[in-house]
Amino acid sequence: MGFLRIIRKWALRDKMPIREIARRTGVSRNTIKKYLRTGIVEPEFQILDRPSKLDPYADKLTGWLLSEQRKSRKERRTAKQMHADLVQLGFDGSYERVAAFVRNWKGERQRAQHTTDRGVFVPLVFQPGEAFQFDWSEDWAYVGGERLKLQVAHIKLSHSRAFLVRAYRLQTHEMLFDAHWHGFRVFEGVPGRGVYDNMKTAVDRIGVGKKRDVNARFLAMTSHYVFDPEFCNPAAGWEKGQVEKNVRDARHRLWQLMPAFPNLNALNEWLEERCKLLWAETPHGRLPGNIADVWDAEKAALMPLPTMFDGFVEQSKRVSPTCLIAFDRNRYSVPASFANRPVSLRIYPERLVIVAEGHVVCTHERIIERSHRQPGRVIYDWHHYLAVVQRKPGALRNGAPFVEMPEGFRKLQDHMLRRPGGDREMVDVLSLVLHHDEQAVLCAVEMALEAGVPTKTHVLNLLHRLVDGAPIDQPDVTPPAALSLNKEPEANVARYDGLRTTGGTRHAS
Question: Among 139, 151, 260, 499, which has the minimal tally of Cβ within 10 Å of its Cβ?
Answer without folding.
Answer: 499
